[in-house]
Write a structure and sequence with these properties.
heterodimer, A: 8 helices, B: alpha+beta, rod-shaped
Chain lengths: 211, 271
């Protein structure tokens, strides 16, 4: 029965101590929050911590949500974003652009590999890894708009609610962030071309890598 | 259209989003005539393709199952704190370092009070057992600021445990240690490793013993006792074990290992 309730209805029940409502709400929203944190930082353990903090915040301060200021989803993402920024600020000197070896060995990238064409698989994996590193290397205020709008496919309106800024700001940051990403990927690709040229082997340019 | 104007619409062109037909035509015409902008358009298309591929690698990712159990325990604890009842308190005995880093201050306080409650209860049990090993009766112990009924199962016998040939007990090596177990009912004894010893009955299965104190904090253990108790099912969550949401209000059987000073050293859950 709870599965048919809206977020706001579940929140009301949760405030009255309904555990099923809390669990339903958690199961409905944890995936998005976890993926947002994972894509922002590239670390599964940090993503797990952030997800836990977001819902602990909800447990402790479940009266703070105001539906007049935006959707419940945006509210949760806003909490997650604040948690992420705090962590990024605290751990900036130690932030790694690549996953540590103690992260899950079975990378999700493995799931994409289709047996048969090893060269294409390798190219695809390298491309995804390049994009992942380029996104993680973006300054936080650019990274968050790319994660929300391009990876989560969130609307500019929703992203503006999450980040607490104007839609125009989202638009301009996204434009700049994409330009930076294109530059970085071109740069990475040029390095790759230079490396491979030295071994007399042809390689596709960045613009052809995905097509 | 000039290059600057083209730059403003390159994302929309690359993603083929709905846009003004005249603007689309103008942009494509410009790209056909300008090599730099054509390259920019191709690279932006490649970027979106890469972002889409990147998103697909994590689109099924979710928080681990134990996160839900931890949050549920926190929710119940919060409800208990705001609405005082006679319901059993969550046994929040935390032993994992990563949990310690992530849980709020009030959880530490709750864990400490619960541990103190269990220890004092255990000491009283120990003292009574030293004088005359008898059947353990159901009793009430204070865990935190709430009363909690602890019920012995399977006859409620206290089982004295004597350490064998290893002088220094460390929980992380429990499987290597030998104990003599002498059930008090008939005086017989058996040799078994701690991880295997009875009193598991019939088809019972159990977790390993989970330490209730840090290894560095615990004193070497010369002998001990095991008592069978019931604890709230949410206690499972405190050790990262999954909790069935539909059975959160039920209790679960557990064996509590008591040191000679009465302190609770380890617990295992029994099914």
């Amino acid at each position: 029965m709870h599965a048919n309730f809206s977020d706001e209805e579940l929140l009301k029940l949760m405030r009255k101590g309904d555990e099923i409502a809390f669990v339903t709400l958690y199961r409905r929203r944890q995936g998005g929050i976890y993926r947002f944190a994972l894509r922002m930082c590239g670390s599964e353990s940090v993503a797990e911590d952030v997800t836990q903090e977001v819902f602990l915040h909800l447990v402790r301060d479940n009266g703070k949500f105001d539906s007049a200021r935006g959707s419940f989803q945006s509210y949760l993402f806003g909490i997650a974003r604040n948690q992420m920024l705090r962590r990024l600020e605290r751990e900036r000197p130690f932030l790694s652009l690549v996953s540590s070896e103690d992260e899950n060995d079975a990378s999700p990238i493995e799931n994409l590999i289709v047996p048969g064409d090893l060269l294409n698989d390798l190219t695809r994996r390298e491309t995804i890894e390049s994009v992942r590193q380029a996104v993680l290397a973006l300054p936080a205020h650019y990274r968050e708009v790319v994660v929300l709008c391009d990876l989560h496919e969130m609307s500019y309106q929703d992203a503006a609610e999450v980040l607490g800024c104007a839609i125009g700001t989202i638009r301009s940051r996204l434009h700049r962030a994409r330009a930076i990403l294109v530059e970085r990927l071109q740069s990475l690709n040029s390095e790759s071309v230079a490396d491979i040229s030295s071994t007399q082997t042809a390689t596709p340019v960045f613009s052809e890598s995905f097509v | 259209m000039n290059c600057q104007e083209f730059d403003q619409i390159v994302s929309e062109l690359a993603t083929s989003r709905i846009m003004d037909a005249a603007l689309l035509e103008s942009g494509l015409t410009h790209a056909a005539a300008c090599q730099n902008c054509a390259s920019r358009l191709a690279n932006t298309r490649a970027l979106f393709s890469g972002l889409k591929a990147l998103a697909s690698t994590t689109e099924a990712s979710e928080a681990p199952v134990q996160t839900e159990a931890v949050l549920l325990a926190a929710f119940r604890q919060q409800q208990s704190a705001t609405t005082p009842t006679n319901q059993p308190e969550v046994v929040a005995l935390l032993t994992r370092n990563n949990w310690l880093n992530r849980l709020p201050i009030w959880t530490y306080a709750a864990a400490a009070t619960v541990l103190i409650g269990i220890t004092s209860y255990s000491m009283s049990i120990w003292r009574s057992a030293q004088s005359a090993p008898t059947e353990l009766r159901a009793t009430t112990a204070t865990l935190g600021n709430l009363s909690h009924r602890i019920e012995p199962l399977e006859g409620g016998l206290l089982l004295p445990v004597k350490q064998g040939d290893k002088p220094n007990f460390k929980f992380r090596k429990v499987r290597a240690l030998q104990f003599t177990i002498a059930p008090v009912d008939d005086g017989s004894s058996v040799q078994a490793s701690l991880g295997e010893f009875t009193p598991l009955l019939g088809e019972e299965i159990a977790t390993d013993f989970l330490p209730l104190t840090h290894e560095s904090d615990s004193q070497p253990m010369e002998s001990g006792q095991v008592i069978r108790v019931q604890v709230p099912r949410t206690a499972l969550a405190s050790f990262g074990l999954p909790v069935n949401i539909e059975r959160v209000n039920e209790t679960v059987k557990a064996d509590l290992l008591l040191a000679e000073d009465g302190s609770a050293r380890a617990i295992r859950f029994v099914r």
